[in-house]
């Protein structure tokens, strides 16, 4: 069973009688419908609807676990505490160092199933602490294959909307529950169909250049590379501009490498069929 240890991931635990209601009214994930044994992606947004923090969340007994990048854990904890007010919620850093992921038909003991990878047809489980020595690079290559993005690798915090990173497709963004921070903006984007930036899987005719390299069509940028694994990568692109380029037969490139772009098949999304005038 393939596995990888992710030393850059850390945990936050939320306990107390108000923990569920607290999270339900704050983050993008529908906590009330979250089943035992499942880790769902989620985000805490700015009032303008952009991702301030991204993470995974799952149930643990009567409380919840949030898994996030170690570099943002303390700041996220401070922000959660700021919103806590008088709610009966205890917020504490988990003592575990890192997270281990397993993929394939079996999973490790004490693990939870990752809902985002499940959408992509890849059984993947997550467990606290170091339970295997597998390389982190193998996990990131799997993410690229699946079309699953994370902050710090594929986008900068406060620079992307949940739709941009496919949270609306991975059970990480609810349009059925009540209000939460940034909800009006993302709901309006959903109902008006105005999401124009999306994560795509990039395939190069040769090894792709470094993360951050612009992807261009006819000399005009459509996005930039995020995670890179050989000749495969992820990027957040303007799908209207890509659709226009495809309709006109304009080649796409990243640096000197000719590339093709594909929206993850599991998302059910497609590039616009008709050529449209791209915004400048």
From TrEMBL:
Keyword NADP: no
Top-level taxon of the source organism: Bacteria
InterPro entries attached to this UniProt entry: CAF17_C (IPR057460), GCVT_N (IPR006222), TrmE/GcvT-like (IPR027266), YgfZ/GCV_T_CS (IPR017703), YgfZ/GcvT (IPR045179)
Keyword Transit peptide found: yes
Annotated CAF17 C-terminal domain residues: 196-267
Keywords: Transit peptide
GO biological process: iron-sulfur cluster assembly
Pfam families: Beta-barrel_CAF17_C, GCV_T
Residues annotated as domain GCVT N-terminal: 12-83
Protein name: Folate-binding protein YgfZ
Gene that encodes the chain: ygfZ
């Amino acid at each position: 069973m393939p596995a990888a240890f992710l030393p850059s991931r850390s945990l936050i635990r939320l306990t107390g009688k108000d923990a569920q209601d607290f999270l339900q009214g704050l983050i993008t994930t529908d906590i009330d419908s979250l089943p035992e044994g499942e880790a769902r992606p989620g985000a805490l947004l700015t009032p303008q609807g952009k991702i301030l923090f991204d993470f995974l969340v799952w149930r643990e007994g009567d409380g919840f676990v949030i898994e996030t990048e170690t570099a943002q854990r303390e700041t996220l904890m401070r922000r959660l505490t700021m919103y806590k007010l008088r709610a009966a919620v205890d917020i504490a850093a988990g003592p575990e160092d890192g997270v281990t992921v397993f993929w394939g038909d079996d999973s490790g003991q004490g693990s939870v199933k990752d809902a985002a990878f499940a959408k992509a047809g890849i059984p993947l489980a997550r467990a606290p602490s170091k339970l295997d020595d597998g390389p982190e690079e193998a996990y990131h290559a799997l993410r690229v294959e699946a079309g699953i993005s994370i902050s710090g690798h594929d986008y900068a915090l406060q620079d992307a909307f949940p739709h941009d990173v496919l949270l609306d497709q991975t059970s990480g963004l609810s349009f059925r529950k009540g209000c939460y921070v940034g909800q009006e903006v993302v709901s309006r984007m959903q109902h008006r169909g105005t999401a124009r930036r999306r994560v795509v899987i990039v395939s190069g005719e040769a090894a792709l250049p470094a993360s951050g390299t612009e992807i261009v069509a006819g000399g005009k940028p459509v996005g930039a590379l995020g995670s890179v694994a050989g000749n495969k990568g992820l990027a957040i692109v303007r799908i209207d501009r890509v659709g226009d380029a495809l309709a006109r037969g304009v080649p796409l490139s990243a640096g000197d490498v000719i590339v093709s772009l594909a929206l993850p098949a599991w998302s059910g999304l497609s590039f616009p069929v008709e050529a449209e005038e791209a915004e400048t």
